[in-house]
């Protein structure tokens, strides 16, 4: 998980990654560069009506912007691969049980440990995501 940043720090970081100046971003949003400067220094917050356009201009989701996290930055989410693996194992267990049961190759007693493993992976992923 990425460390939570202030809204201002997230705006500044993502603006710079996009190669935009404060003036460029301000022009896209229909505000002044002084407003962008205040946001980045956490002296003011963007108007609620500006947030969707701001998130779009920075290449973030509105959720990422509001939570102060940018999940799209490569190398910044060490648990992302583990989370993907946990979800994949859970899905694989569910598909395996469904397919093998449909083929008559799996009894309910044999299916329980597989489903238990899948549920354990989902639980581990949920705990990791918090």
From TrEMBL:
Enumerate the transmembrane spans.
Answer: 79-104
Q: Which residues form the HTH cro/C1-type domain?
A: 11-65
Task: Specify the domain of life of the species encoding this protein.
Answer: Bacteria
Q: Which residues form the signal peptide?
A: none
The record, for InterPro entries, names: Cro/C1-type_HTH (IPR001387), Lambda_DNA-bd_dom_sf (IPR010982)
**Xref: CDD domains:** HTH_XRE
Q: Which UniProt keywords apply?
A: DNA-binding, Membrane, Transmembrane, Transmembrane helix
Give this protein's Gene Ontology molecular function annotations: DNA binding
Cited PANTHER family: DNA-BIDING PHAGE PROTEIN, TRACRIPTIONAL REGULATORY PROTEIN-RELATED-RELATED
What this protein is called in its record is Helix-turn-helix domain-containing protein
């Amino acid at each position: 998980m990425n460390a939570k940043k202030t809204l201002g720090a997230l705006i500044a970081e993502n603006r710079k990654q996009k190669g935009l100046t404060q003036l460029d971003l301000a022009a896209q949003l229909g505000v002044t560069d002084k407003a962008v400067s205040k946001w980045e220094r956490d002296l003011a917050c963007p108007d609620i009506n500006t947030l969707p356009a701001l998130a779009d201009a920075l290449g973030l989701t509105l959720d990422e912007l509001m939570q102060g996290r940018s999940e799209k930055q490569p190398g910044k989410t060490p648990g992302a691969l583990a989370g993907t693996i946990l979800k994949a194992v859970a899905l694989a267990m569910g598909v395996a049980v469904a397919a093998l049961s449909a083929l008559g190759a799996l009894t309910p007693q044999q299916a329980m440990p597989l489903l238990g493993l899948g549920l354990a992976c989902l639980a581990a992923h949920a705990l990791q995501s918090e």
